[in-house]
Amino acid sequence: MSLAEPTETKAPARLASSTPGVGRAKKFGTAATRAAIPAVSGSLYAARTKIHPQAVHGTFRRIKWALLALTLGTYYLVPFLRWDRGPGEPSQAVLIDLDRGRFYAFSIELWPQDVTYVMGLLILAALTLFLMNAVAGRVWCGYLCPQTVWTDLFLAVERLIEGDRRARLKLDAAPWSVEKVALRTMKHAIWLMIAWWTGGAWVLYFADAPTLVAQLATFQAPPVAYMAILTLTATTYLLAGHMREQVCTYMCPWPRIQAALTDEHALNILYRGERGEPRVSAKKTAALRAAGQPAGDCVDCFACVTACPAGIDIRAGLQMDCIQCGLCVDACDTVMGRLGRPGGLIGYDTEANCRSRAAGGPPVSRILRPRTVLYGLLVAGVGGGMLYGLATRSFAGLSVLHDRNPLFVTLSDGATRNGYTVRLINKWHAERRFALSVEGLAEARVEVVGGTPGALPVPPDATQEFRVLVFAPAGARPDPSVPLTFRIHDPATGETALAQDTFKAP
C-alpha cells in the first residue's frame, strides 16, 4: 500500500515509503538522527490517500480482462448448470448438499468419508501456488486472486461513471454538488448490486439454484441464506470497493510467505535501470545523446506509477506491495511506442538476468531448476494420486462398532457372544444387497437381528445400520482378544469392502 497518492509530476519522496522497512532505520536508527527530526504531534502513521489508477491498454490488460470474464462468468453461471443423476437425485451440476452431507461435481459424488479428497485439493492448491510463485512471483495475486478480480470490476464501474484518473481526482477535490452526489450514488449502488450478486451466487452452490432464486425473490428462503448474502455483500463491498490494495498488503499473508519461497530466477516485474537511467525528458534526450552525454529511455513521466493499482513506483525496485499485474508494463510500453522507442523498459524479468545483463553477460533463464521441478512433480503426484483414487474408489463401505457394555456374554452352553453395530454404505443410486461374513475366528457363527447375513438390503445413496451377533462355540476357546475381519460382498457387481475389529472372550 502506498501512503500518499502519486501526483501528476514527480513524487520521489514517496518511493521509500512504498517499500516496508526502507527509511525506518534512518528515522529510528541513531540518537543523532532521531534528534535531528522535529517533534511531530498526532498519529505516527500517515493518513491514507485514495489511489486512483490510470486506465491502460495493452497485452497484460487484455489478459486481465479475459481472466476476469472467465473467472466471474464461471462463478456466477456454474450453479445453473444441470446434470442428470437419475430420479430422486439433485440435478445441479455442482452442489454442496449440507443436509445430506454430499458434494456433487458433475459425475463425482463425495461423501463425508471422502474428506481425504478435500485435503488433497487443499494440498494441490498450495503446491500449485508455490509453483506459480517459483516461476513468476505473485502472478496469482495479479491475475486470479478473487480480491484482484473483484477490485478490477469495481474499478471498471468507477471509471465508467466518474471518468478516468484525472476526472476522479478532480471530482474528489470538488465541493459536494447535485452532480457529485448523483455520480457517487450511482457508483455505490452498482457496487452494492455487484456485491449482492456475489453473495447471492455463493449461496446458490448450497441449494438448487433456480428454486433458491425463486425463494429469495419471494422472501421464502431460509434465514441463513439471507444472512450469508448480507455478510458476503458487506465484505465484497468493503474489500473491493474501499480497502483494495490494503487487503493485498496488510490483510493477506501471502506477500510475506512468498518472499521466503522465491529466488533470483523467478520472473518478476522489474525496471531495466541500465537502459532507463539517467532519466531525461523526451525533449532533451536527442540533444544529450548528440553531445555524447548519457540519457536513458525513461522520461520520468510517472505513467507506470499512475497505472499501478497499489500506487508504487516499480523503478524503486521489487516491493512487497507489487502484485505483478503487469499494468505498469502496458503503461510504459505505450509511452515508449509514442516516443518511437522499443518497449520492455519495464517487464517480466529475473534478478539473475538483470545482473548478468548489467555486467555484459549472456541472458540467464532458468525456469527449470530444482524447486520448480520439485513443485511440478509434487503437483503431478498429488493430482495423479487423486485422479487414480477417484477412478478406483469403492462405492460400498462399512464400519463396525463393538458393544462397550458388556464386551462379551458367556452363554449357558459355554459359547461366547459378542455384539456389534455394523453400518453398510451404498453410494449407488439403486438398492443393493450385500452378503456379510466374518473372518479370523474358527467355527464362528454370525447372526443379524431382523435379517440374514447373506442378503442385507441398503437403500440407494444411503447407509443402513444392522445389529450383528458373533458366536464362538465353547470348544473354540478363543484368546481374550481375537482380531476379526468383517467383509461385505455385492454378488451383482463383485465389489467388496472390509473393516477390522476384535472378538472379546473371558
TrEMBL record:
- A GO molecular-function annotation: metal ion binding
Record bears the keyword Cell inner membrane: no
Point out the signal peptide segment. none
Domain (4Fe-4S ferredoxin-type) ranges: 288-317
Q: Does the keyword Metal-binding apply?
A: yes
Tell me the InterPro entries matching this sequence.
4Fe4S_Fe-S-bd, 4Fe4S_Fe_S_CS, Cyt_c_oxidase_cbb3_FixG, Electron_Trans/Redox, FixG_C, Ig-like_fold
Instruction: State the SUPFAM superfamilies in the record.
Output: 4Fe-4S ferredoxins
Q: Which UniProt keywords apply?
A: 4Fe-4S, Electron transport, Iron, Iron-sulfur, Membrane, Metal-binding, Transmembrane, Transmembrane helix, Transport
Example of a GO cellular component annotation carried by this entry: plasma membrane
Transmembrane stretches in the record are 65-83, 115-136, 189-207, 219-240, 373-391
Q: Where is this region: Disordered?
A: 1-23
NCBIfam families assigned to the protein according to its UniProt record, in alphabetical order: ccoG_rdxA_fixG
Q: Which PANTHER family match?
A: FERREDOXIN-TYPE PROTEIN NAPH
Q: What is this protein called?
A: 4Fe-4S ferredoxin-type domain-containing protein
Q: Which organism is it from?
A: Methylobacterium dankookense
